Amino acid sequence: MNAAPATEEFNAVKEALAHALRHNQALAGELRMVRAERDLLQERLKQFMRKLFAARSEASSPQQRDLFFNEAEALDAASEPAQDGASDGHQDDSQLVRAHQRVLRGRKPLDAALPREVVRHELPEAERFCPHDGAALVEIGVETSEQLDIIPQQVRVIRHERVKYACPCCDGALRLASKPAQIIPKGLFSEGLLAWVITSKYCDGLPLYRQTALLSRFGGDLARNTLAASVVRVGREVQPIINLLRDHLLDAPLIHGDETHVQVLKETGKSAQSKSYMWVQMTLCSGVQGAGPPIRLFGYAPSRSTAAAQILYAGVRQGSVLMTDGYAVYDAIAQAHGLVHLGCWAHCRRGFHEALQTLPKNARGPEQLSARFLALIAQLYAVESRAREHRLTAQELLAQRQQYSAPVLGQIEALLLANLHAVLPGSLLGKALHYLASQWHKLKLYVTDGAYPIDNNACENSIRPFCIGRRNWLFSDTVAGAQASANLYSLLQTCAANGVDGYAYLRALLTALPMAKTADDYEALLPWRIELPSR
Fold first, then answer.
1. What pLDDT does 78 receive?
2. How far apart are CA 196 and CA 204, in angstroms?
3. Fewer Cβ within 10 Å of end Cβ, the chain: N or C?
4. Partners of 39 in beta bridges
5. Hey, what long-range contacts does 395-401 have (CB within 8 A, 24 or more apart)?
C-alpha cells in the first residue's frame, strides 16, 4: 500500500541529486573557464610589466642585461680610463690564443687621417745642462703622445658677391657674373648647414628645436620654422635620387620588408592621434648573385593596408625573394608578384621567449615546452654563426644547412605537431605555436639556398634609428614632412650601409644636384658612386 509514495520519494531524491550533479558540473566548468581567463590575464599582465620595466633584449646573459641600463658603470669596472701614454713604438693589439685572436686591452691609435696640431714641450734654457760636468744638453729625440680634441661648431656667414661689368664707352654691355645654382634658390642656408642639420636630425635623433638652441650659443639665431621648411624642401628636391634607388631595389634578387608606425598631425581624413606608417625596404650586399650595393628605402603611407604596400612594391622583379615577418599583407604582395616568400625565425623565436619569460624564474627549466623550442632554434642559429665566423660561401652554407639545420627543422616540426592543440590558443605559448604553424611553409625555405637569410633582423636594425629619432621628435607635422623624412632617412641609411659618411655625402649631393640634367648625371650622385672630397 505504501510502495507508490516511497517510489515517488525515491525518484524525487534521485532527480534532485541529478540536478545537483549537473549544477556542480556546470560550476566546475565555469570555474575552469574563470581560472583559464585568470591565467591568461596574469600572463598578459606579466608581459606588459616586462615590456615596461625589463630589458628589451632577448639575450639570456645577466651581464648583457646589466649592461643595458648600467653601461657606464659596467664598463668603468672592467677597464681603466684612457691615460696619456707614450707611443714611440708600435705595439700589436692582439695575440693568438689557440684558435682565435684575443684583443688586448689598451687604447687604440687615433685616426691617422685627422688633422694634427703639434705642441712641442721643451726644457727651459736654464735647465739644458748636465748636472755632472756642466756640458750643454743636445736633442736626441722626442717622446710623443696624442689626445683627441674638438673645435665646437663655428657659425659663419658666406657673403656672395656677384661682380657687375659694363662697357666704359656705351651702355649696351652691362653684364653680371653668374652664381652657381643652389638646392634652394635664394635660400638662407648653405649646403653645409643643411647637411649638418639633416644629419643631426636623422642620424643623431636631434630635433630641430634643440638644434636651434645649440646653434644660438654660437651666434646662429635661426627660426625653427624656417629651418623646418628648408629640411622639407631638401627632402622633396632629392626625389630623383630616391627614384633611382627604388629602381635598383625593385630589380634586386632579394628584398627585406618591414614597417613601423609614425604620427602625422595634419593629415586629411585622419585625426592627429591616429597612426600612419613608415614602410622599410632594403637589400643586402650578400652572397646573392647580382645583389649590387646595399640599399635602404623608407616610404611613407597613411595606412598599413595591402593597397599601400602594392604601391611600394609595384615593379618588383618577378621571381625575386621577399623576407618579412608574418604580416598577412606581405603574403598578398608575394602572390601578386610571384615572389619567393621567406619567414623570419627571429619573430618566431620571440614568441617562445616571451612565453618563457612570463613563467616564474624557478620554473624556466629546459623541460618547459617553450624552452625546448628555444633550444632547437638556437641550434639553427649556431649553424649561421659558424658560417659567419668562417666566412662560408653560399654554396658552403647550403651544404651546412642541409647537413645540420634540416634535421633540426624536422625535430621542430614534430614537436609542433605533438603540442599544437594541447596548449590554450590564447596563451602566449599557444600564440607562439600557432604563429609557427602558420609560417612553417615560409620558415623552412631558407635551408634550400645558402644565399637566403634566416631572419629579418637586418631590416629591423635599419628601422632602429628611425624609432630612436621618433622618441625625440615624436611626430611629423604634415604629410609633406613625413615624406621628406622618409627620403632623407633613405639617403642616410643607404650611406651607412655602404660605409659612406652621411654628412659628407649630403654636402656633396646638395652642391651637385642642381646641376644634374641627364640620367647619367643623377646616377653619378648615388651614394656608392659620388665623388666625395677628402678630409
1. 42
2. 11
3. N
4. none
5. 395/450, 396/450, 397/287, 397/450, 398/447, 398/448, 398/449, 398/450, 399/450, 401/446, 401/447, 401/450
136 DSSP 8-state letter: B
**pLDDT for residue 518:** 92
Residues 6+ apart with CB under 8 A from 167: 173, 174
Q: Please provide the distance, in angstroms rounded to a whole number, between the alpha carbons at the two ends of the chain.
A: 119
Among 412, 260, 425, 297, which residue's Cα sits nearest to residue 349?
Answer: 412
The SS3 call for residue 179 is coil
Q: How far, in Å, CA of 103 to CA of 108, rounded? A: 11
Q: Which grid coordinates belong to 59?
A: 639575450
Task: Give the list of residues 6+ apart from residue 503 with CB closer than 8 angstroms, or none.
Answer: 195, 196, 199
pTM over 0.70: yes
C-alpha cell at 427: 596563451
Q: How far apart are CA 77 and CA 60, in angstroms?
A: 21
Report, as an integer, the average pLDDT of 376-389: 93
pLDDT (0 to 100) of residue 413 = 94
pLDDT digits (tens, 9 = 90+) for 209-250: 888 888 888 777 778 888 889 999 999 999 999 999 999 999
Burial class (CB within 10 angstroms; exposed 0-12, middle 13-18, buried 19+) of 377: buried
* DSSP structural state of residue 415: H
Torsions phi, psi of 296, nearest 5?
A: -125, 120
Average pLDDT estimate for 474-481: 80
Length of the chain: 535
| Burial class of residue 317 (count of CB atoms within 10 Å of its CB; 0-12, 13-18, 19+) | middle
